[in-house]
Design goal:
This protein has about 250 residues and is an alpha+beta fold. The chain contains six helices and eight strands.
């Protein structure tokens, strides 16, 4: 017998199914990323209304079938629609990059409360800001990767543990090793990128400061943006961020 469950969730994506239904992907607070069958969702008077629109934060009632991978969505009540993300181009494209990260990088049915709260905070901050959103998206990427087990080492040499403050002006970053290297250890990696202390401090700010503080940071130079995307692509192979520089957002 199917089990009735309740949770909060953020809508990530939907596609038409059959004549009148949808398959909707949500990231849920309690169960992680799930696919749902929303029967009758495409009918004009559907009980789901706008609760299945991308970015929507909602309370869900769902059934977990015994064998199929598709959960059955029984009801959805909107908590916050984040309507602004649907009407302003810059905010929409930034929000799209946040949900696409989750769609591509996160496995199904692996709950992560910290990641859920981060997604919700990112969309809330995005909906409330009038500022440039590039740094917010990049900060989300780094924090989300950290919660998935891929936090870059930005405080000490990843080999000898020498502190950043004790390193000379020239510092190196190794994607494969996952962090910074001092000049003495740079030969431990076949591929490194040269950084300054200021560069590393900017990366630390994106990683460690609260999301809303990223809106006040200076724009990163293109080389640092490229470094972040290459790092994520290296460690999260399913992610494929090659198109994330489109639409003038990062």
């Amino acid at each position: 017998m199917a089990k009735l469950l309740r949770t909060e969730a953020i809508a990530l994506h939907s596609i038409p199914f059959a004549e009148s239904s949808k398959i909707v992907t949500f990231y849920t607070r309690d169960f992680g990323k799930l696919n749902f069958l929303a029967k009758g969702a495409r009918r004009p008077r559907s009980k789901f209304g706008a609760a299945l629109e991308t970015f929507t934060y909602a309370k869900l009632i769902l059934y977990k079938p015994e064998t199929p991978k598709l959960y059955i969505l029984s009801d959805a009540e909107i908590i916050r629609p984040f309507a602004r993300l649907q009407t302003t181009a810059e905010h929409y494209f930034a929000g799209e990059k946040i949900v696409n990260f989750v769609l591509r990088a996160v496995d199904f049915e692996e709950p992560n409360a910290r990641l859920f709260n981060l997604i919700l905070k990112a969309l809330t901050t995005l909906a409330e800001t009038n500022g440039i959103t590039d740094n917010l998206v990049l900060a989300f990427f780094l924090k989300a990767a950290s919660f998935l087990g891929y936090r870059p080492e930005l405080e000490n040499c990843i080999i000898c543990r020498k502190a950043l403050a004790k390193m000379p002006k020239e510092i190196f970053f190794a994607n494969g090793l996952g962090g910074i290297l001092c000049p003495d250890c740079k030969t431990k990696s076949p591929e490194v990128v040269c950084l300054s202390q200021k560069d590393v401090i900017q990366l630390q700010a994106l990683l460690y400061l609260p999301l809303h503080r990223s809106l006040n940071l200076k724009h990163l130079k293109p080389e640092l943006v490229t470094l972040i995307l290459q790092y994520l692509n290296h460690h999260l192979e399913k992610l494929d961020l090659t198109d994330f520089n489109q639409n003038n957002v990062i």
